Amino acid sequence: MFLFHVIVFHEKTRKKKRKAQISLYSILHTHKDFTSSLAFSSSFLWLVSAAENTRENKMDSSNEPSSFSSALRIYMDFNLFLSFLGCVSFCENSNGRVHLFALQVCLKQTSTVSNHKFQSIQVIENPTPDTNIIQKLEAQIPTLHYPKPKTFSRGECAQTPVRFFAILSIQRSGSGWFETLLNSHINISSNGEVFSPSDRRKNISSIMKTLDRVYNLDWFNSGSKNECSASVGFKWMLNQGLIEHLKQVVEYFNHRGVSAVFLFRRNLLRRMVSLLANTYDRNAKLLNGTHKSHVHSQEEAAALSRYKPIINTTTLVSDLKEVEMDVVKAIKYFNSTRHMLLYYEDLVANNTKLNDVQEFLGLPQMELTSRQVKIHKGPLSDFVKNWDDVVNTLNGTRYQSFLEADY
């Protein structure tokens, strides 16, 4: 459990002597529900506290409000309560006195602040923060950004915060299906495999320029929503320049506040079958002379699944191990980055995993849908021509479980 205390001291007014009032605000959250309770509760405290003007004192209309006060009113006017995941703001004036401000926002807000003013507030106690708790909270809360695109103006959406993410995966691991699910969310824009063309990843400089275009909202394709998108990202395969430049990419992600979503398959043998079948169809074009990596009907799926690849059993174990090591290496490097790890099998078997993804991205829960249809259904033995050889090769190895049905 995390317990936060904000102690506020209301000064005596000049006109009337009043006893100092001490207000104690305690916010109690569990680690798991911290983000969601802040973002979606009907009324929450913005981890900052403000002194209300007493009933006897009314706002002097002649006094020009401070820029900070104006900014707060603007935020309230536009009902940006879903944007604030909590922060504390301490401002020091010329007298050296510390001011601490707060905003309380409700789901059903009908008017702006017109009868309040900020009073001088003194912090009674400023305990040393627990760095461990702060680090855990920062890992839970996605970073908010306010991009300024070069190619267009965000207009009224300029104050709409954006969260950055990247889907890190390997081919034929369900990333295409997963991305269509994300893009069915009204607030998510995921821009596909932006590093598929080799010229965008020929060196670290071209990679950084491409990343900047995506996260500055200057990237346009069918996955782009509009200037008010609340979460923006793309999918990146490990073999598209990512493994070669892991250190620089991790530094970039940490600097820009990009959250990583890893998506892999537990059963790497099933992934290999899908990869071999897809590679074959690039040339064969089984669907009326057209190659399709993803299909949207059972008829198309059945046509593609008729092809049975022959697996090279001589290199099978080493091939599986190589993919496994790349996955482990990537996850290890991104350990310092805000990330979550997903497996395709879990997403297929448990739809609630998608709720975890939306919570991780700091977005309101929605039902996510996709038109894509799975191609290879059923036991792997139905889709491999030399299945007996594969069984003999993997029996007694660490990969023997891949021979069994996984979902």
From TrEMBL:
<dbReference type="InterPro" id="IPR027417">
    <property type="entry name" value="P-loop_NTPase"/>
</dbReference>
<dbReference type="InterPro" id="IPR052796">
    <property type="entry name" value="Nod_factor_sulfotransferase"/>
</dbReference>
<protein>
    <recommendedName>
        <fullName>Sulfotransferase</fullName>
    </recommendedName>
</protein>
